[in-house]
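Purpose: get a first structural picture of the assembly so the mutagenesis plan has something to point at.
Setup: two entries, given in the order below. No constraints added.
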Amino acid sequence: KQEVTQIPAALSVPEGENLVLNCSFTDSAIYNLQWFRQDPGKGLTSLLLIQSSQREQTSGRLNASLDKSSGRSTLYIAASQPGDSATYLCAVRRGGATNKLIFGTGTLLAVQP
Amino acid sequence: DAGVIQSPRHEVTEMGQEVTLRCKPISGHDYLFWYRQTMMRGLELLIYFNNNVPIDDSGMPEDRFSAKMPNASFSTLKIQPSEPRDSAVYFCASSLSGNNEQFFGPGTRLTVL
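Result (structure tokens, whole complex):
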């Protein structure tokens, strides 16, 4: 059974700092991995999607990496801003015919001005 | 594009009442997903459809829950009868096969008294 873990559960950093969020999964047979952010009381916003054949994806100040063999992904945020404060969730799609996403528990990020 | 649309945004009902949640996916997307989010269990997939056909309903908690997708632009999730433990935020998401990136709606916050 696929399990997805995110560490730390919460993180507080001063504005301007670079930071890394971690996601680990127990079954390396994944199809892709997606990072989301969720603001309080809101839905999920897709940030980056990494296919299993890719090593990383970049969008602006965000960079996500994927190491399937070790069951890990990281989300790197450069020059953090207070507007980055949110809960960040990773989700893996299993291999095979299923289109089911398994979500991690999330990391609550607070960027202090 | 308007994104995924859900209604109502908030629903408060009494135990035993029927609740119907509605979703309009992004135009052209052929996958539709229903999720439930609670503090205790995080984000869980309830059911998903491909081309209006239910593919995996293994996450539907019990027979009180049912979902339909009568056409490509509309889906409903019904709870009958509702119970206090059904209180959660229910999200709808859609994706386009081939890319598989899922886009979420704003959610419906359900409170069952």
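The longest strand of chain B covers residues 42-50.
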